[in-house]
Amino acid sequence: MDSKSYRLREFINPGDGRSLVVDASAGLALGPLAGLEHFAEAVKPILPLVDGVVASPGQARHLTGRTRAEAALLARADWTNALRGPDFVLPPETISHIPLLAPSDALDLGASALVLYFLLGHEEQIEAGCLRSTVQLALQGSQVGMPLVVDVQPVGPRVVLRGKAIELGVSYALEGGADGVAVPWPGRASLEMILKLSAGMPVWIKPTSLEAVESELAEALILGAAGLWLDERLFSQPDPLGVLETLRAQIHKIVSVG
Amino acid sequence: MYLGLQARLDRLFNRQGDGRAVCVAADHGYMSDVTPNVVNLRPITAAVIQGGVDGILLSPGQAMRLAPLFQGRDGPALILRADWMNMPRLGTSNVANAVPQRLLVHQKVVTAGQALDLGASAITIYLFLGYNDRVEATGIEVCARFVAECHQIGLPCIIEPLAYGGQVTGANSVEILTLGARMAVELGADALKIPYTGDVDTFRHLVDVSGVPVLVLGGARSDNERDALELFAEGLEAGASGCLMGRNVTKSPDPKRLVEQLCGIAHKGWSVERAMRTEEWAYLKLKAHPAKCTGCMLCVTACVASHDSGAYGNHLARLRIDPGVKAGQHKVMFCTLCKKCLDVCPTAALRWHPENGAVELLVDKCTACDKCVEICPTEVIVHSDAGIQIATGETLDWYPVVCDLCGGEPECATICPTGAIFVDERKELA
């Protein structure tokens, strides 16, 4: 087993091959979001309940001193304004995508993986840049044993067939050398195709909404997905810990005794 | 540097010792639709390796993932796709419909050093002509940078000129491809991957002006397997050094068999007809019942008459009747297909005939060294009466006369009145 595989085992349970990840890095592009105004206070309580937390390079400092029972750190490797909507205080006029971290930087942060957006549906050069970054981070990551998880984002205005666009993003990630992908719920048929395409590479599902999460997760796990990838919306829930406990039990099949 | 470059070129083009390569492009998931050949890449790659492929073109990610399949002395050479473009998405396809693109983007993705780290024996990069001036200039810049990087570390650089865009018409595409081929070579390409121009003459001209090994690509998959084989055979006839076929192989219902067919055409001199045969083919072989031979010599006379019209004398016969141990007995001496002459020939001028399995002499390659005549255990390879001029312009005083099984219907067996000589079948030769 190589060092990438060891690091993947830090946030994918080797016992069942499944994983629950929370992406708490949105503040890098979207500022202080509801429930995430105080990063450390919001994130520290969830660490025992999840397998991995995605954090921006700056917020990673709040995730030091974790015990073995707590979540692994996944470092956000890039920045983009593509996730800002038209109502945002600074609505994007042109989409940018900027690489921030190299695998060696992630190693310095004590991360177990790098996470990179793959933006689909914007200008051709944005997509080309994502492809180039994927290949470079994968190749450089192989040198230092740092896995790369690609976060597929079919959010551009040119996306017409969403399911096909997600399949394309996974294909690019795979051909580029990614070690895992996080995809929006693409529907059953597309997910089947994606899982066949990924040939054993872990695939996380990003649910359509927290209301739909349990049914989408159940279907995804039956088909062979690695688990769930939640975003910042979790923190705006009245009881994030309760939500996570339920989902954790569903993912890792934890049965309460008594 | 030169040694490394040559060693890697040999790994690709000289695995069979004939300067030819049958390669498969399996990098489509990197740029185009998520089709079944992309989804099932691992089993398809394993199948084409079983078929004896010489090289496989992969994206960087798949090169890492499928690296174990390339291990071992007999493993194929890895060709790495070092750049990326979105051309397939400018047309009409599932992907084009899912996320339409308006502009052609072509970019460098990995460095030559990174390709070498992945174990590549060569890299492949595009050179677009006919889209617009900016894209052409970008292509020139990318190719020049890759060639410089590659040659510093002894890594062959295969450039793939493509005629694509509004400036390309049916009338000028061959001219643009020929231009692209020459430009690529002037930039420093060590080999070319290029579409077939559609006919032998124009492709021969393209190969001639290139001066480096040319791999013909297959283009979109044809429903008819024969089309791909014919395209390849024509490419070889025009002087290509092999192929780098993609969808025709990876979308084939039987990729292993198609690779075997391509390898047969490239490395064994098979015709397309021979390659298309599905049943186990039994070649011919002469056999004899010595007890039935009366020594009438009709076979010897018929041999000379059927091959050397106007020649006089049995010394040109490809078989011989010797006296037996006892009085009245005869031994029929003919070619037993023992292969010793093929093995001893220093210029590979002797080979198995692809159709009937007899020994075939390629006169152009013969140097009249006499080794085949000397080694023949039945002494049925003889000197011709006349000399011959070979391709180099040199004249040979004689050339070896070998049994060709009369093209499939040996006259000696046909004419033998007692059935002492007859035709049997033998299994395919290794």
Account of the protein in words:
The complex is a heterodimer of chains A (258) and B (430). Chain A is an alpha/beta fold. Chain A is 36% helix and 18% strand. Chain A has helices spanning 3-8, 27-30, 39-43, 103-108, 124-144, 162-176, 188-198, 213-223, 240-252, and strands spanning 19-23, 52-55, 72-76, 78-80, 97-99, 113-119, 148-153, 180-184, 203-206, 227-230. In chain A, strand 9, helix 8 and strand 10 (227-230) form a beta-alpha-beta unit. Chain B is α/β, with parallel strands linked by helices. Helices cover 35% and strands 19% of the residues of chain B. An 8-stranded parallel β-barrel of chain B has the order 1-2-3-6-7-8-9-10, surrounded by 5 helices. A two-stranded antiparallel ribbon of chain B has the order 4-5. A two-stranded antiparallel sheet of chain B has the order 11-20. In chain B, 43% of the residues are buried. The A-B interface holds A 120-121, 124-125, 127-128, 131-132, 134-136, 138-139, 142, 154, 156, 158-165, 167-168, 170-178, 193, 196-197, 199 and B 27, 29-30, 34, 38-42, 59-62, 64-65, 84, 86, 94-95, 97-105, 107, 109-110, 114, 117-118.
What is the gist of this entry?
Chain A has 258 residues and is an alpha/beta fold. Helix content of chain A is 36%, strand content 18%. In chain A, strands 1-2-3-6-7-8-9-10 form an eight-stranded parallel β-barrel, surrounded by five helices.
Question: Tags for this entry?
Answer:
heterodimer, A: 258 residues, alpha/beta, eight-stranded parallel beta barrel, two-stranded antiparallel sheet, 9 helices, globular, B: 430 residues, eight-stranded parallel β-barrel, 17 helices, 19% strand, elongated
Could you name the ranges of chain B where pLDDT drops below 50 across 5 or more consecutive residues?
none
Contiguous helical run count of chain B: 17
Biggest sheet: strand arrangement of chain A: 1-2-3-6-7-8-9-10
Helix content of chain A: 25-40%
Topology:
The complex is a heterodimer of chains A (258) and B (430).
Chain A: H1 3-8, E1 19-23, H2 27-30, H3 39-43, E2 52-55, E3 72-76, E4 78-80, E5 97-99, H4 103-108, E6 113-119, H5 124-144, E7 148-153, H6 162-176, E8 180-184, H7 188-198, E9 203-206, H8 213-223, E10 227-230, H9 240-252
Parallel strand pairs in A: 1-2, 1-10, 2-3, 3-6, 6-7, 7-8, 8-9, 9-10
Antiparallel strand pairs in A: 4-5
Helix pairs in contact in A: 5-6, 6-7
Chain B: H1 2-13, E1 21-25, H2 36-39, H3 41-50, E2 55-58, H4 60-65, E3 77-81, E4 83-85, H5 94-98, E5 106-108, H6 112-117, E6 122-129, H7 133-153, E7 157-163, H8 173-187, E8 191-195, H9 200-210, E9 214-217, H10 225-237, E10 242-245, H11 247-250, H12 255-267, H13 272-276, E11 283-288, H14 298-307, E12 320-323, E13 330-333, H15 340-344, E14 350-352, E15 359-361, H16 371-375, E16 382-383, E17 388-389, E18 395-396, E19 400-401, H17 411-415, E20 421-426
Parallel strand pairs in B: 1-2, 1-10, 2-3, 3-6, 6-7, 7-8, 8-9, 9-10
Antiparallel strand pairs in B: 4-5, 11-20, 12-13, 14-15, 16-19, 17-18
Helix pairs in contact in B: 3-12, 8-9, 10-12
